[in-house]
Design brief:
The chain is of the alpha+beta class and 246 residues long. Among the domains are: 112 residues; 50 residues, no CATH class. Helix content is 25%, strand content 18%. It contains 5 helices and 8 strands. Strands 1-2-3 form a 3-stranded antiparallel β-sheet. The longest helix is centred in the middle third of the chain and has 17 residues.
């Protein structure tokens, strides 16, 4: 610190090393940084998140999913490419990097291109991207949804794209597949056989496919599948096992 002398010097002395140096008046004291007031919040440093920039490799591993809706004669093909992180180590994992959607139907071309670019940008940003599944599946078509083969209800085409992304994330291990266990599955199969035997009409009218549910089933509000039947005064879903009787 520079001090300007504007008076005549009449004397001087040398300070000993034992004498404490005069504290700079411009220096901030500890009391100013951390006041004695216990109610005040302590001063904390700003945390800067650091991340590694990932460049797109020359080759990516991908999977393609086909979506066929009753609202269009042309199918939708969804391709999700994954980047392999920590290849060759015990921490090797696959993470989605980009998505492409292709179809002969050009009615939805504009918003499909926008959707693929946004989803790809979220994939490349990294972190927990599983929230995309819930966001897409909560989109409802104002014209109404549709039922797929097997009684599965789809509220919109966007929701079905979310189902395809969920299926891919379950395959790569990003989402844990919390399906019904084998014991519960055996119980549901037994209830289904009992229901079919009670409501059998004629010789072959009740011969349903193993992946379809009774035609008079109601819609399950949990898994959105027409698989709810009434057995012994209790409404039970033959697809997810949801029951009002516990």
């Amino acid at each position: 610190m520079t001090i300007e002398i504007d008076k005549k010097i009449v004397g001087y002395e040398v300070l000993e090393s034992e004498q404490p140096e005069q504290q700079d008046t411009n220096e901030v004291t500890a009391e100013e940084v951390m006041p004695d007031n216990k109610d005040s919040d302590p001063v904390t440093a700003e945390i800067i998140q650091m991340h590694e920039k990932l460049e797109r490799p020359e080759m990516l591993l991908g999977s393609t999913y086909k979506i066929k809706t009753p609202q269009s004669e042309h199918a939708l093909y969804i391709t999700i490419n994954d980047v392999v992180l920590n290849m060759g180590t015990e921490h090797e994992m696959r993470r989605p990097y980009e998505i492409f959607i292709n179809s002969k139907n050009m009615d939805h071309f504009q918003w499909i291109v926008a959707l693929t670019r946004i989803i790809s940008a979220v994939f490349r940003k990294g972190g927990d991207v599983t929230f995309l599944v819930d966001e897409l599946r909560s989109v409802f078509d104002p014209r109404g949804g549709y039922f797929k083969k097997g009684g599965k209800y789809k509220p919109s085409l966007v929701a079905e794209i979310g189902d395809a992304i969920e299926c891919h994330m379950k395959m790569t291990g990003m989402i844990e597949d919390k399906g019904i266990d084998e014991c519960q599955k055996e119980i549901l199969d037994a209830k289904r056989r009992e229901y079919d035997s009670i409501h059998a009409q004629g010789n072959s009218s009740s011969a349903e496919s193993s992946n379809e549910f009774p035609p008079n089933s109601q819609l399950c509000m949990k898994c959105h599948t027409k698989a709810v039947i009434s057995m012994d005064g209790c409404m039970t879903c033959l697809n997810c096992g949801d029951s009002k009787c516990g």
